[in-house]
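testing teh design pipeline on a random one, pls ignore if ur not involved
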């Protein structure tokens, strides 16, 4: 059974991510965005999602730390979806192999 605190955090982060997406369309729909503001608006949901993995940086579990390193390498070279798939696979395989 998943920890209710984690589920609540995930639900709140999903809501914030959705609100940043829909808020941009609602509040800025009649304005012309400059390049800097466009980059900020496109980066906000990713910044919220980063908070999902941030607690793993301090776990001290070798499998999670190695999976984070693999994820960072994948994120530097690949788009988001392949990175997420690689991250999930790396975490699962390493947790199974190193426990």
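output:
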């Amino acid at each position: 059974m998943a920890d209710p605190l984690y589920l609540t955090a995930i639900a709140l982060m999903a809501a914030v991510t959705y609100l940043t997406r829909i808020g941009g369309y609602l509040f800025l729909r009649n304005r012309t965005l400059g390049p800097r503001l466009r980059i900020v608006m496109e980066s906000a949901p990713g910044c919220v999602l980063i908070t999902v993995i941030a607690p793993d940086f301090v776990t001290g579990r070798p499998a999670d730390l190695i999976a984070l390193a693999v994820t960072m390498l994948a994120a530097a070279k690949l788009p988001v979806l392949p990175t997420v798939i690689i991250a999930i696979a790396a975490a699962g395989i390493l947790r199974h192999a190193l426990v």
